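User: Structure please.
Assistant: Input sequence and predicted structure:
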Amino acid sequence: MDKSIEVPRIIEISSEGAYFYELASEAANEGEYPSALEHIEKVIATDPKFAPAWHVKGNCLDGIGRCDDALKCYQNAIRLDPYSSESWFNKGAILKKLGRKRQANSCMKKAVKLSLGV
């Protein structure tokens, strides 16, 4: 018998934060990490509890080789939204880059379980 409880994920953001988040996401998707970081810092300044902003910041920092800083961002994203399978997976990927394989595997397993709803 499955005793899991589905917890709704409500993520709020200001209109200003949403604007800069879109700019940051577009820049990050194009590999323009310095520009994306500028925009994402504005999101975090206005909406510091918006977990997806921390995730995007982690992606950008990873893209420019700042693994330790990226790890901190993913940890922050997970603290704010522990149900984000993407943040758990990316945390695992960073840990693997840092040579912390056991912790990496644990995070990646958590990501798979979350994405499958297990």
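Helices lie at 15-29, 33-46, 51-63, 67-80, 85-97, 101-116.
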